[in-house]
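Each record in this resource describes a single protein on a pair of labelled lines. An example record follows, reproduced without changes.
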Amino acid sequence: MAGGNIICGTFQSADKSGPALEAVLEALPLQAHELIENVKQQLDTAEFVLIEVEQAKSLLPFLQVYQAQLIAEIGHDDWARATQEEKSSLEPVAAKWGSGKGWRLYCVRDLVGACENSLVEMEPVCITFS
């Protein structure tokens, strides 16, 4: 599994913002456990993940809180700058797949956008890996 593009209706994520998906899911609170397990199961068995509209609606508040938490921890909302700031202290591949807060911010930002779009356009969120 490589990359990871997050799509929902007219929403198209930035290029390959999904690699940190599993790390983002694991950072969400226990209340989101059932939703997280459904997505993680799809990660294990499929080339793409579908988050249905009702799931997106339930997941969105958890993602928004986590996004705000990451921004507070990093000190700004610029994921690219955060990845550069972390570059010297993290192995690049591990950072991209979720050990880096900048990469997690990149992923959660697009997940929030896709889930918000899902509620407007009533379309599922699709995360594809190539």
Notes: The chain has a mean pLDDT of 83. The longest helix spans residues 53-74.
